[in-house]
Amino acid sequence: MNRFMVAIGSGFFLLFIALAAVGQPSQAEMPAGSPLVTWHQSIESGWAESKRRQVPMVIFITRGHCRYCDAMKSDTWCDQSIGQQLADDFVAIRLNPKQNATELNRINVTSYPLTLIGMPEGKIVDHKTGYQPVREIRSLLSKARNRIRRR
Q1: Which residues face 91 on adjacent strands?
Q2: Where are the alpha helices (DSSP H) in the chain?
Q3: Which of 68, 81, 93, 113 gives 40 a disulfide partner, CB atoms 3.0 to 4.6 angstroms apart?
Q4: What's the domain range around 41?
């Protein structure tokens, strides 16, 4: 956990080094989420779109049978204002250990859910661990949007 936190704190992230080696499906809508948002199911496709559009990534790491993950899906990500922010200013990526084992093993995720904010150049600049209500995600998204505008 400490290594992971140090990596995030220092502003870099391995951004799943084996990008070319992982062949995940490109996109799918996230169940129990805003209909405005298309969630990428792999870091590859999401990162490519982030670079193309020059917008930050919201990386939501979830797993099955996790009540806090499910609560975020039904409470936070379904919120109309969050959906609109994601659709307008971000690339949404949803990862889980079953489909993205190689990518997630590289960062040693120890707690779910985990929400990361990544910049188009591949750096993780912020994160939130555990369930996050709408107001916390709204704040996280605002900080990320301001960061990209200052560049």
Answers
A1: 57
A2: 2-9, 43-53, 67-71, 80-89, 101-105, 134-150
A3: 93
A4: 2-9+27-150
Q: Which two tokens stand for residue 35?
A: 């209909």
**CATH code of the domain containing 46:** 3.40.30.10
22 lies in some domain: no
Please report where in the chains the tokens 């990320």 appear, as a residue: 144
- Closest to 30 in 3D by CA, of 22, 38, 18: 38
Q: What are phi and psi of 128, to 5 degrees?
A: -140, 130
Return the pLDDT at 146.
84
* Structural domain count, the chain: 1
Structure confidence at residue 13 as a pLDDT band (50, 70, 90): very low
N-term to C-term CA, the chain:
30
User: Which residue, chain included where needed, has tokens 């590289």?
Assistant: 106
Residue 47 pLDDT greater than 80, yes or no: yes
pLDDT at 36: 80
Task: Compute the distance between CA of residue 59 and CA of residue 16 in angstroms, rounded to an integer.
Answer: 12
